[in-house]
């Protein structure tokens, strides 16, 4: 738990703080009993230095000797041994750590307690394939592949990575262009093999399996992932400017649609455990309109827990910081790197520890507003809430127009993004105001009148089920509305 479980010490067991393998089997069965699917995290890039493989590799024990990226280092003219190159860890500082027992450096893309695996070793590749089969045999329905981009490094580790030119300290990851440590060509064939293994289980029992890949990269890299059969996360919406215009938002979406390989299915992400919450990035008044965007696009929406409530971030002091990315940056710069604020506990109730635990403390401090912003309060409110809207949007996604219907842009400007989702059976108009002031005369979106299907909290000029004239409809900043249109005859 040096990096919250991403420092895996055993690929085929459950950490006792979470339960046992039998507990996991029960969970899987209960999930399936409810008609749901269970996807597990697969962390293939690295393991904990507490892992048995690493301990054996340190001792050069048989096949395990080359399971990791080892190097004797570079000897200077004065006899001093230093790191073999200038590679930097994503968490800051050198990506090489000296091991005194083996008398060599090992490579770590992340924390020094997370040693990178050597995928050029055939035995290691077999071990990871066997890991996938283990969990598929336990009944999981797919995998989220973690940290895919750094899976391989170039073989020639004497190569220094070029300087990026960015104005950051020389110890920070962004100081270099990571051309030798990310997105190497060997990664795609390895991913294809993993997908083929998963597909073998599909052929056996006819049950769907799904593989989604964490890769922060450009559309061309994503498309290479699509070719394997797996789906890459599209994180582009996470990396927009601080106050994106309607045009920037739509351009980001259309960049995916226009480059998507034929027959492939897109997905979009607006929040995750490595990114600031919507309420922090854009302001809490925009949470609902972004949720409405995410759940009405063509493709799979990925929601980070708490965004369906509009959760705010917790204020995390240096003393309470546990994220290694933040700790490694030091007390003066930790806030630029820590991922703790968006990882505060889920807010269930206004009661003790917000219903997250009965224990004396939570793993991170709760957000300050947890007594007023929580699941119970939003469910019991007499008013429209973020959670109620989210449930309405989920219900709308059962309509064919939002599942497989066409996506057509009706209007876009600096404030407004407006599009239709339509099938042969239903047609909807989505109007979203990402601007900083109210918008009236929404006839610009291509319709004159329609029936309100859903609207964000605070829209006072109409209500769900009401027939409205678009010329008289007013949308305040951060509001949105979904209108059911009359089918064309």
UniProtKB/TrEMBL annotation:
InterPro entries referenced in this protein's UniProt entry, alphabetically: GH, GH13_cat_dom, O16G_dom_2
Record domain Glycosyl hydrolase family 13 catalytic: where: 2-343
Keyword hit for NADP: no
UniProt entry tagged with the keyword Metal-binding: no
Keywords attached to this entry: Glycoprotein
Domain of life: Eukaryota
GO biological-process terms attached to the record: carbohydrate metabolic process
UniProt cross-references to PANTHER family, sorted A to Z: ALPHA-AMYLASE FAMILY MEMBER (PTHR10357), NEUTRAL AND BASIC AMINO ACID TRANSPORT PROTEIN RBAT (PTHR10357:SF179)
Protein name: Maltase A1-like isoform X2
Biological source species: Biomphalaria glabrata
């Amino acid at each position: 738990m040096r990096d919250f479980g991403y420092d895996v010490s055993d690929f085929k067991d459950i950490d006792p703080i979470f339960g046992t393998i039998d507990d996991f089997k029960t969970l899987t069965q209960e999930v399936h009993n409810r008609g749901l699917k269970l996807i597990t995290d697969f962390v293939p890039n690295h393991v904990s230095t507490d892992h048995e493989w690493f301990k054996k590799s340190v001792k050069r024990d048989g096949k395990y000797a080359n399971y990791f990226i080892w190097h004797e280092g570079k000897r200077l003219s004065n006899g001093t041994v230093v790191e073999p190159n200038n590679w930097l860890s994503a968490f800051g500082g050198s990506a090489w750590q000296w091991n005194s027992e083996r008398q060599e450096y090992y490579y770590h893309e992340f924390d020094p307690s997370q040693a990178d695996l050597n995928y050029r070793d055939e035995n290691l590749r077999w071990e990871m394939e066997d890991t996938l089969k283990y969990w598929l045999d336990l009944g999981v329905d797919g995998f989220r592949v973690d940290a895919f981009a750094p899976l391989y490094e170039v073989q020639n580790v004497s190569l220094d990575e070029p300087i990026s030119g960015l104005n950051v300290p020389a110890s920070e990851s962004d100081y270099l262009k990571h051309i030798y440590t990310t997105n190497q060509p060997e990664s795609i064939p390895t991913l294809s093999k993993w997908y083929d293994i998963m597909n073998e289980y599909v052929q056996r029992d006819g049950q769907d399996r799904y593989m989604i890949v964490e890769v922060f990269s450009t559309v061309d890299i994503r498309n290479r992932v699509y070719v394997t059969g797996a789906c890459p996360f599209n994180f582009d919406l996470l990396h927009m400017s601080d106050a994106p215009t309607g045009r920037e938002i739509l351009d980001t979406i259309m960049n995916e649609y226009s480059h998507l390989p034929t027959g492939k299915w897109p997905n979009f992400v607006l929040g995750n455990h490595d990114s600031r919450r919507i309420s922090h990035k854009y302001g809490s008044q925009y949470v609902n309109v972004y949720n409405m965007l995410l759940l009405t696009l063509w493709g799979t929406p990925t929601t980070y827990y708490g965004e369906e409530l509009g959760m705010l971030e917790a204020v995390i002091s240096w003393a309470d910081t546990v994220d290694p990315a933040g700790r490694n940056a030091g007390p003066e710069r930790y806030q630029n790197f820590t991922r703790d604020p968006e990882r505060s506990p889920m807010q269930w109730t206004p009661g003790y520890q917000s219903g997250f635990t009965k224990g004396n403390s939570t793993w991170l401090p709760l957000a300050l507003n947890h007594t007023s912003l929580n699941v119970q309060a939003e469910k019991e409110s007499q008013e429209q809430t973020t959670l109620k809207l989210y449930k309405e949007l989920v219900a709308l996604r059962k309509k064919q127009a939002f599942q497989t219907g066409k996506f057509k842009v009706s209007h876009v400007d600096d404030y407004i993004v407006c599009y239709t989702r339509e099938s042969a059976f239903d047609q909807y108009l989505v109007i979203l105001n990402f601007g900083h002031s109210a918008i009236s005369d929404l006839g610009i979106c291509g319709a004159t009148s329609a029936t309100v299907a859903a609207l964000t909290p605070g829209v006072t000029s109409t209500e769900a089920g009401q027939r409205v004239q678009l010329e008289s409809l007013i949308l305040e900043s951060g509001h949105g509305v979904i209108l059911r249109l009359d089918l064309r005859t």
